Amino acid sequence: MQINPLSDILGAEILGIDVGNLDKGSLKEVHEAFLTYHVLVFRQQELPPEHQINFARNFGELDIHIQKDNQFSGHEELQILSNKKVDGKYIGSPSAGEAWHSDLSYTDIPTLCTMLYAVEIPEIGGDTEWSNMYRAYDALNSDMKKRLAGLHARHTFNRFRNPRVEVPDVYKGKGKERYVDVAPPDAIHPVVRTHPETGRKALYISERFTIGIEELEEEEGQNLLDELIAHQKKREFIYRHKWSEHDLTIWDNRCLIHIACGGVPEGQIRHMHRVIVRGDKPF
Ligand code: SIN
């Protein structure tokens, strides 16, 4: 297998393998590359849902996303992210991931890694960006590192409780109840988490899901969040991926945040399959 770094910030592309058919030695190599580069892009994969699901199982137990309405029929582990419509209705989520986040940080046991497969990509738009939270943490000055030690943040799925994010039209009105119906109780996690495999520290908050700092008064907590959110979105931590058809990406949610960049023109299709692997409780 050939491993080519995609930037000096994060990311590597993997050539010369078929993820549906890997021996133990290759899987070990892939896992080491995953810890080193945090995002892997496997090019030109022919990947029916069951092969994607089987490959993801090599990384841990699969999770079922709380939003059940975008599930692939017959495979509840696989979600469709798509702007395709059939009979006037979206066949998947057209707006997933449109604000910076780490997957399922609003649950007690967030996602270890996410696998996203590009079934169909548009000519324009539809990129994904990841920001490296090891680097964001390392770049903080020592006073800020001391200030963050021991602090915990509150994460929620419910957009209506987060003034930093917009509520897409599809969720307005009746959607309000829908959020309340599916949102789990808030999750409380350390503002700086330790990666369970590498032992490195990473900033663990995000614009989409984090709504407060437990140990601070409201105003002080919001000011601190504003500062950290601006910091984690600096270009020096970010890699932007322009998808090719049949790219399979896998990324480490324990040390990255990511965003779907949007910008797909009317009439062009972006159709993706997503599987998530359950992690462990952040510490
Ligand atoms: C996600 O946030 O899981 C999806 C990202 C994307 O579609 O680019």
Provide an overview of this structure.
It contains 6 helices and 19 strands. It has 283 residues and is an alpha+beta fold. The strands form 5 sheets. Strands 1, 2, 3, 4, 5, 6, 9, 17 and 19 form a 9-stranded mixed sheet that branches. A 3-stranded antiparallel sheet has the order 16-10-18. Strands 12-11-15 form a 3-stranded antiparallel sheet. A hairpin with a 2-residue loop joins strand 5 (71-72) and strand 6. The chain is globular. The mean pLDDT is 94. The chain binds succinic acid. The site of succinic acid has 11 residues, from strand 9, strand 18 and strand 19.
Write a brief structural summary:
The chain is an alpha+beta fold. It is built from six helices and 19 strands. Strand 2, helix 1 and strand 3 form a beta-alpha-beta unit.
- List unreliable stretches of 5+ residues: none
The percent range for helix content is 10-25%
Question: Which whole number gives the mean pLDDT?
Answer: 94
**How would you describe the shape?**
globular
Distance between the termini: 34 Å
Number of helices: 6
Estimated structural class: alpha+beta
How big a fraction of the residues is strand?
25-35%
The beta-strand count equals 19
What compounds are bound to the protein?
succinic acid
Largest sheet: 9 strands, mixed
Order of helices and strands: EEHEHEEEEEEEHHEHEEEEHEEEE
Oligomer: single chain
Rg: 18 Å
List keywords for this structure.
three-stranded antiparallel sheet; 283 residues; binds succinic acid; alpha+beta
